[in-house]
């Protein structure tokens, strides 16, 4: 898989007189997606014919990212005919590839291939320098996506800027940078919502990966990135965010008796992101929720409002570790 990304999804860019090789989502497909042919066709309906294939290529590239769709890929933050995924170098993708290098080096060490482990460790060390040079903004105190068209970092703030905390794609000697990133997340307003972290602060796009929708993967990565730091303020913020996310999931579950693909995190009153295409029983929601419940089982409490017969023995405001034990009796020991 890593060989595929290096061969098919890299690009060399120049910045401040130096060349850097980075990763991006860039699909080779420039036609409407078979599974969404009608919507893709009409997305480019009002675009000159010569530009339509680029629109469809960018739509396919955005779908490849998993953020399908988001103002993050739209030049005007609103309409699909301004999509420019191929111009955006995502900070989170590159952070994940940095982590991939670390994992591969570890696995080669486990099988005794110390030479290959050393090679990948050197490659990762160089990439950490690339990562900081391309994505980190000293003035803002955080990493940001990079726009190939403008040659500048993208000003709009998305929680994906915290993914490098999760993958630990930074120099171990640069710990003050981590506190700066937390300050940026707070200053930009991403951490203020009662139900978790929204996919963006953009309210005008009407795309699913935008305000007020929160998704389990990005909430989980932000929380874990803060938790894994050695800084008590960051660790406390991780706990607070986990508490909000777990309780939003659980409160909606009490009403709907379901776990959802995404949640409205912005309102004090409890609801899911109630669109027709919000899917139930979603794997990433289940997995992130269970992991956070186990991680914070001694600290977080949940408050029941409506109890179903399946969990009728669960009491108000009980610790998560007790809840996990009772859920084990219902669903089996695989939960823990």
Percentage of β-strand residues: 5-15%
- Strands of the largest sheet, in order across it? 3-6-7
**How far is the first residue's CA from the last residue's CA?**
30 Å
Mean of all residue-level pLDDT scores? 90
What are the secondary-structure elements, in order, as H or E?
A: HEEHHEHHEEEEHHEHHEHEEH
CA gyration radius, whole angstroms: 21 Å
User: Based on the structure, what is the oligomeric state of the protein chains?
Assistant: single chain
Largest sheet: 3 strands, antiparallel
Number of helices: 11
Q: Regions with pLDDT < 50 over 5+ consecutive residues?
A: 306-316, 330-336
Task: List the SSEs and their pairings.
Layout: H1 2-8, E1 10-15, E2 18-23, H2 37-43, H3 49-65, E3 88-89, H4 91-110, H5 114-135, E4 136-137, E5 142-143, E6 146-147, E7 152-153, H6 163-167, H7 176-188, E8 213-215, H8 216-227, H9 232-256, E9 262-264, H10 283-295, E10 301-302, E11 318-319, H11 320-331
Helix pairs in contact: 4-5, 8-9
